[in-house]
Amino acid sequence: MRRIGMLTSGGDCQALNATMRGVAKSLYNMYDDVEIIGFEDGYKGLIYANYKIMQPSDFSGILTEGGTILGTSRQPFKQMRVPDENGLDKVESMKHTYRKLKLNCLVVLGGNGSQKTANMLSEEGLNVVSLPKTIDNDLWGTEMTFGFQSAVNIATNAIDCIHTTAASHRRVFIVEVMGHKVGWLTLHAGMAGGADIILLPEIPYDINVVCEAITRRSKAGKHFSILAVAEGAISKEEAAMTKKQLKEKKKNGPVYPSVAYEIGARITEITGSEVRVTVPGHTQRGGSPCAYDRVISTRLGAEAARLIAEEQYGYMVAFRGNDIVQVPLKEVAGKLKTVDPGCAMIQEAKMVGICFGDE
Amino acid sequence: MRRIGMLTSGGDCQALNATMRGVAKSLYNMYDDVEIIGFEDGYKGLIYANYKIMQPSDFSGILTEGGTILGTSRQPFKQMRVPDENGLDKVESMKHTYRKLKLNCLVVLGGNGSQKTANMLSEEGLNVVSLPKTIDNDLWGTEMTFGFQSAVNIATNAIDCIHTTAASHRRVFIVEVMGHKVGWLTLHAGMAGGADIILLPEIPYDINVVCEAITRRSKAGKHFSILAVAEGAISKEEAAMTKKQLKEKKKNGPVYPSVAYEIGARITEITGSEVRVTVPGHTQRGGSPCAYDRVISTRLGAEAARLIAEEQYGYMVAFRGNDIVQVPLKEVAGKLKTVDPGCAMIQEAKMVGICFGDE
Amino acid sequence: MRRIGMLTSGGDCQALNATMRGVAKSLYNMYDDVEIIGFEDGYKGLIYANYKIMQPSDFSGILTEGGTILGTSRQPFKQMRVPDENGLDKVESMKHTYRKLKLNCLVVLGGNGSQKTANMLSEEGLNVVSLPKTIDNDLWGTEMTFGFQSAVNIATNAIDCIHTTAASHRRVFIVEVMGHKVGWLTLHAGMAGGADIILLPEIPYDINVVCEAITRRSKAGKHFSILAVAEGAISKEEAAMTKKQLKEKKKNGPVYPSVAYEIGARITEITGSEVRVTVPGHTQRGGSPCAYDRVISTRLGAEAARLIAEEQYGYMVAFRGNDIVQVPLKEVAGKLKTVDPGCAMIQEAKMVGICFGDE
Amino acid sequence: MRRIGMLTSGGDCQALNATMRGVAKSLYNMYDDVEIIGFEDGYKGLIYANYKIMQPSDFSGILTEGGTILGTSRQPFKQMRVPDENGLDKVESMKHTYRKLKLNCLVVLGGNGSQKTANMLSEEGLNVVSLPKTIDNDLWGTEMTFGFQSAVNIATNAIDCIHTTAASHRRVFIVEVMGHKVGWLTLHAGMAGGADIILLPEIPYDINVVCEAITRRSKAGKHFSILAVAEGAISKEEAAMTKKQLKEKKKNGPVYPSVAYEIGARITEITGSEVRVTVPGHTQRGGSPCAYDRVISTRLGAEAARLIAEEQYGYMVAFRGNDIVQVPLKEVAGKLKTVDPGCAMIQEAKMVGICFGDE
């Protein structure tokens, strides 16, 4: 009897179920006596031994379903070594649950922080195979994460809708796209949606450069501009501030629920343009996964099962050039794949005339 | 030679082009010598004689296009009798343009304010036929306006996306739906999306009732709640305030970019729940019109052409019980079709358990 | 304790689950002690007493799901009085099951044939409330059936996709839309998709008239034509044939899997045009119900529950002019709502230039 | 003054306009004096000198539009050297047009055949840069072609819709996916849609193996099966036939409009199951390009412009591992990228239980 634990961790995204289905279907097809244990709400379920014995039918019909049948929660890596309110050591608890349930392997679907924890558990001696989940596509070691293309579709669709209405009125529109630290989602959605200006966490913007781009379009007879702005977009002034100065600024200035409203206010101030803000928010994590995500999820899931069958542990399954590869967890953990301001894609975007507010 | 003027007025919406196509194709099929004059940017084009002579090919391929090929602008009815900055009387200018161009009829696609102006022009002696445009479905005299069902689809889709992600986390989600004075869009999207709580301008809410509904769900094991909130949702306290008091409140309290953020802050304050806000904003006016809107737009357009052919002027073409009817403009002008808190649809929504914050 | 039976009958469609949810949520909210019994696979479940006791949680999260959680089957009305292979009288069996389970009422979601059976059961003394299900919108007594608008969306989307590719090539495209006897679905999708030619079961076509319309477009520089053809489209020759002659024709001529291929072959024969056929087929019954369908389903469901509460039996709940009304089953049973060739909508379609092959 | 010719060739697909926009916007941004000449209807426009001088505004707003603003046609490579009906040598004519218009470069958007012609023109001394267009993703030298992911979405959506209705009835459903020689589209859509059986041109099927898979599912309580079948799916018997034998078979057997109907008939014959066929057909080439395609199209277009600026001719711009690279045309021409029956993706698909009819 093989016993495989499984959990989904961190912010949810679109193809978590599709990926788990890929792992499970492959395992059930390979072994007559495999048992999958699903931990509830991420690492929390492993810590507190909240789990259910999954049945093959649990994985049926979930290829197209958003969310996660196991639930998820954020368990910051930093606090993993901090005892909980009852003095419980979380890492030891996870190891205890793993051993008590006599697991052969733990399958973790997670983003950056979750991969760090997965690596730690691997270093602590557990057999771990992980899968790259995040709408941010910011995981090191894989060209693509599942969830990303589905989120791109939703953010792009918002920009598309804005386009038709923008062309009829004479305004500036800001669509705020998810991404506090990394701009891949905003960059892709902005390019796909034909945004005129794209502001990313990795490329601090000069509000005057942004306003000049708007004015230039206006003078060329294009009476609207569309900005795709990452949640973590940052001005050159802010980028130069210390953490303390940033806090001061927040405390003294007007409070905006998010960066798009602040940038909108600055644009109105400088250009006099009416600005309208759209915040797709958590819709970007929801809905049915797109075909692309379902394909890579199924493939990643099958390869995770193969690693388990071959007893190759300590790896994240990853996507490279249409192939599925395996990357040592210790190489993945703690690294972020950010947008390099000088990369080919940014250059290409600039070639077609997109302004990033930097020059 | 028949000469027909046409304009689109007010906030844009999804089937303006489809409707104009319906009018134009019908006219071109009926008459060999009809000429359609398109005024740019709504009544502004009529006031300042900005127009283009349309060709049949201009109306080809636009059935599925959002926005309006004529452009639009808001020209508040109240200011129509106020001379512009150059002392120009706008009403006289419109009449002048109409006569100079020897129009047989003016076709107006517009919402509430635009219908008032259409009626005034009709009373001033112009031949006017109007069409019911608005995502708000708040026009008196018609069961349905074009644009409404397309907007419902977009707002519903936002709630759908939130649903999958909400079920994975444990939070309160607010989707802010367009509608400052009228709640039809929020009511339909809220019902279609399976929102737990719907807040409308017509039904002042008690924040405690809202929070109790959230807590009740939580106690029943449903660890998330979704609110569909109209832009013009109003609390019982606010509803009881004078205009002056409302202004005071706004001046002294924290400033929120829109009502959803304020309600979200109150919910966190009272229940301690994390709240996430989604603002689809102008996406609700954009994108390709849905099949429903394209059908009624084509039908409304054809019937407008028939009225013109029969020289029946002074009417808005309207939709009633799957039929297209005509309603005298003077009956339409100045009336708003709001959500009656006691209407069947609200009762049905309450029967399936939706909370409106009122009891 | 109230005991309510429920079944879904006939070809499936998109908002069956949404409607059952509407009924169930309303009942559970009204009564503490209601029990809903779900019969499996339509009337078959009632005949053979295959059922499950439903729980409130069964109706949770199904608003957006296509298909039916109860399953469905076709049980032709004509064979209801014919004993089955074991000599079982089906009508008596249904009455027996109803009584044995001590039902207060049976809720039937069905189309034409199913309503006839519902009426028969009502006349046999059972308490029946029915709901209007069909993608064909051919039920007498209601302006709209749930499923219809969702199916219109899918068929329209197919025509939309064809449009972009048709405009690049020079061909005739046929999209075959569901509807053997009634053309509402084809008419709505055809209008919404901007089809040039629409062929319906109710309006026999002359293939030469169809080909002339194609040639006329071609001469006017429009090098493609799109036909929306109902499965049951019929030529004038066929319409004039006896059943025997029709059978002869089928036996002797080439065999086509469906009418679109036959019409395509004739068009190629006469005009020399390349023809491409698209058959969306059962996709038209699938997918998530559209917002419109979810709203009317929820409303219809709530009103069905109200009828049950008021012990008003023998009715179909129906939709008229944005209101939900009740229609005696005996008025509904056996009547078909077909497209009247002289109705306003056909005239409007002709005004915008759509050819129906009849003149 | 730089003069750049541009044409779209072969079957159309979804991001042709997006790609041309990418090339054009980049060129206009780089040069003040560039002129783009658009040839109409593919190579035909180059042969017969049918062209238009494009304006920057021609490329505005087309990012999201399906089809091609230049039109397209199939000009088989084999017939390029065969004089036309007037004795005109097509290759010489193309060279003549190119020189007469003093082009600096010709940009070709095309699939397999078109790349062969592009290579020939390059070998004949013209400056050529080409871009990989096809819904089939069968071009050698690139991991991805634009159009492919959009087509996958449409075919997947068809399977999704079938899924909900299939689960309610008890039938076998066949969705016929485009692809006469290459199965990538069917493979991706089949995996994304959760098809149970996938039949590809590259993997000859045994109808008995297919029917056993259906029966096995049925015995396991899954009363429906969904097949994703490529247009060019081929049985083991057919694969073993000579061309002459194949012709004989076609002449003597029943005639089916396409392979799905034939396979359906065999399944009914062997298993007795009711089979329903869906043919999305040319819808797979239509509609707005998906976000993924718009991103790679814009990137590919920008890099094509860079090659032109650097006077690097004789290349196809290609996509590899998230990077845009250039591949010599002579390496691309005449090679087909087919599905290797032993490749990782097929193995992964088999791991999750998909049957390919081969074993």
UniProtKB/TrEMBL annotation, chains A, B, C, D:
Any one GO MF term held by the record is: diphosphate-fructose-6-phosphate 1-phosphotransferase activity
Which annotated residues bind Mg(2+)? N112
Give a yes or no for keyword Transferase in this entry: yes
Gene3D superfamilies from the xrefs? 3.40.50.450, Phosphofructokinase domain
Transmembrane regions:
none
State the reactions this protein catalyses: beta-D-fructose 6-phosphate + ATP = beta-D-fructose 1,6-bisphosphate + ADP + H(+)
For the ligand (ATP), the binding residues are G11, R74, Q75, G111, N112, G113, S114
Q: Does the keyword Nuclease apply?
A: no
Matching HAMAP family: Phosphofructokinase_III
What does the protein in this record do? Catalyzes the phosphorylation of D-fructose 6-phosphate to fructose 1,6-bisphosphate by ATP, the first committing step of glycolysis.
- Similarity annotation: Belongs to the phosphofructokinase type A (PFKA) family. Mixed-substrate PFK group III subfamily.
Q: What binding partners and quaternary form does the record give?
A: Homodimer or homotetramer.
Protein known as = ATP-dependent 6-phosphofructokinase
Identify the gene encoding this protein: pfkA
